[in-house]
Amino acid sequence: ADVAYLRSILPSTTEDAFFDYLATLDTSEVTVSAVPEGSVVFARVPFLQVKGPLLVVQLLESTLLCLVNYASLVATNAARFRLLAGPDVKLVEMGLRRAQGPDGALSASKYSYIGGFDYTSNVLAGKLYGIPVRGTIAHSFIVSFTSLEEVQLRKLPPLAGGEPVDLPALAESWLQRVCELLQTPPEKANRGELAAFTSYAIAFPRNFQGLLDTYCVRRSGLPNFCAVALALHQLGYQAIGVRLDSGDLAQQSKEVRRVLRACGAHFQVPWFETIPIAVSNDISEQSLEEFSREGSEIDMIGVGTNLVTCPLQPSLGCIYKLVEVNGSPCLKLTEDEEKMTIPGSKTIYRLYDAAGHPFMDLMALEEEPSPSAGQELVVHVLGRLGEASKVVPTTVEPLHRTYFRDGQMCEPLPGLPEVKSHAQASLSLLNPAHRRLHEPQPYPVAVSERLHRLLAELRQASQ
Amino acid sequence: ADVAYLRSILPSTTEDAFFDYLATLDTSEVTVSAVPEGSVVFARVPFLQVKGPLLVVQLLESTLLCLVNYASLVATNAARFRLLAGPDVKLVEMGLRRAQGPDGALSASKYSYIGGFDYTSNVLAGKLYGIPVRGTIAHSFIVSFTSLEEVQLRKLPPLAGGEPVDLPALAESWLQRVCELLQTPPEKANRGELAAFTSYAIAFPRNFQGLLDTYCVRRSGLPNFCAVALALHQLGYQAIGVRLDSGDLAQQSKEVRRVLRACGAHFQVPWFETIPIAVSNDISEQSLEEFSREGSEIDMIGVGTNLVTCPLQPSLGCIYKLVEVNGSPCLKLTEDEEKMTIPGSKTIYRLYDAAGHPFMDLMALEEEPSPSAGQELVVHVLGRLGEASKVVPTTVEPLHRTYFRDGQMCEPLPGLPEVKSHAQASLSLLNPAHRRLHEPQPYPVAVSERLHRLLAELRQASQ
């Protein structure tokens, strides 16, 4: 069908033999080597090398770029959020509504997870990729209730067994006590919200959580949540969290924590003060910086739009370039050294210092001997190719593995959890000077002396 | 399988009856009305209304938002490019490499087309949606040749029939004449590029096009193109275009047109001067403004990254809100009037002035009688709800149609070409003051007097 379609759009003079040839195309002569998925890579370093018949590898260009660009972009963006959030805060991806359609959203969930997120709110991504899913109740669920009379199933048995209790009534009596403690008028606590919380608690007594900002957090959401959570506690259950979705999230988290502590102390419910506080609402890198500057009490952060659409840099510009034809290295000339391709089939090495941090990526021609740990190397750093530098790596790591040889997978592909832990390990190895998000120290990428000579020859030859 | 997965992630205390219930869920009680696809819509106006059991319509929220948000965003972005480019320039979508994975890219191709693009470079989108596809030769194809000896099939028969001719030799002789005319040294015209052009021309003699910037446009790409196109002309064929992919595209297009005109005049080939000039290379709205400011000779523009990732606004924030439960209108309160939902089941009208331009969208309660053309109406414009205004529409158009009633499609969905022409017609109806891209006049959105009263009552009741 694909060939029939191509026949319909190509000029009518196209030879039949060409379409016959297309029908025989396969990847049996293609070999792909790449850095392991999740590896940190730097600009100008090839992270994927494809060898094979020119026509076939050319057909792979758009497909490979499409698969790599957004995946790398969003994994990188997620890694930045993880670095800012620190290791203890839980991060939830919730970008489905703003991603590029259903499959764009699935890619976003998958690669956010690799980049360092803990959960996704995309249930299909959970099912397809085994990513843990998390969510909270919706504003619309809360708005759909107006009074406690609407709670249809009212009874909840205590955890330890025994006579079921009328939870709405119990919650209402707790609301009085909570409002007294917090010195807030009980009539300001919205009864529809209380009804929604109670209904939820009866359905999920071990998993009760509250969304606090449908009405007023301080006078309604928080007292209602505490009332239902204390009623549940009386029956032996523990609430599992709250969510804030508007306003000054850092300040509110502190206020919420203060109230949870006060309730915990006053009503002698010690676990109350550690109830996890989740936040959402257009969270960006800047939000995370604010949270840490203001010293928040936030335990979990949901990030959607700014994670999946990467507004700081909405696209990644990986390119796919021809570097060798029929065994001869080739070069796309340009005025701009930054855009010059590096010719030839190459082996890529990552050089480590004595502290275990990578300090340079080195491209060498495939036929060159591998650099040795502890031995001095002459290299030329991109951006200042004119000068030779000498480096002595403590460890030398070849970055690429051959995953696909002559049309066959030849190295098992790691699962998502392995890719994720490799990504996190790869990031943590970086020197903090290279890893920091603001004005990181540039990471040098170099070519070997032989590759440097080849580059010079080819430039001269084509001028 | 979905229910089994949900069972595995929901608390173990979840009742079996709930999962049994999930298995019976369908949309047989759901009704969806919407503006026809491709309609221009304004902020705050509901363009889709969903009625049905609360649980079911709630489950549709993320799906609908995911399907609508990016589609509307990229169609809007495409429409902006179309407005800037004017009606005569051809626009080609080429975002596959930078979109959110394969399906994100397909969505981008489809909705760019609706927004006003003419072609896509995504062949799969062409096949799946019937969008016309276009492309040009690649830099790598050109780089893969180094000399004319590499052209393997050399002979091309004239269009009118007769003895096949050695095209590389013919092109090389034309190159001498072109270089003489242009006063540029023939040895600066890269022979690999000439070989690539010749090979392409032999394969597609009626569809020859040149990518001019692999080496130097002026000294290599352009003379080589003219040489091959003139050689083809001698055999009866017409070249179909050139592409520029770097540098100052507007200036270069003028230089290229000048040379094409000079060649056309000198060698008496009149069609030469109208050879279409296509450009690409990170084209943005700003690029299009520059082209029109500098008076370019560009006939076709390829837009990729800045079309599909919408960097000026990388996401669209459509929301899905509960406005009525059990026949009672409801309201999510907020401090911010801009974010307040408009309660109740509504009918939406677009009001037109005597010139045929829409001048206001009006929301009224479903049970209200329709406003009449030529009759004075009292309305309250959002943003200044306090004041009543009077308007007299020349035409009144109900915006929504019911597409899905009680689980059944009840209005045939238009095909892509119809949606596209509806979008273009909908845009062209706009008053230019509303349509302009910079500081457009805000388009007023209003509520009927009855809806305004309901809004006031509900706000009062919940305070």
Describe this structure in words.
Chains A, B: This is Nicotinate phosphoribosyltransferase. Two copies of one chain form a homodimer. Chain A is an alpha/beta fold. Chain A folds into two domains: 192 residues, Alpha-Beta Barrel (nicotinate phosphoribosyltransferase), CATH 3.20.140; 232 residues, Aldolase class I (TIM Barrel, Alpha-Beta Barrel), CATH 3.20.20. The first copy, chain A, has 15 helices and 20 strands. The first copy, chain A, has a six-stranded parallel beta sheet with strand order 4-3-10-9-8-7. In chain A, strand 15 and strand 16 form a beta hairpin. In chain A, helix 7 crosses helix 9. The mean pLDDT of chain A is 94. At the A-B interface, helix 1, helix 3, helix 4, helix 5 and helix 6 of A face helix 1, helix 3, helix 4, helix 5 and helix 6 of B.
Please give a handful of descriptors for the protein shown.
16% strand; homodimer; TIM Barrel; 463 residues; six-stranded mixed β-sheet; alpha/beta; nicotinate phosphoribosyltransferase; pyridine nucleotide biosynthesis (chains A, B); 20 strands; glycosyltransferase (chains A, B); glycosyltransferase activity (chains A, B)
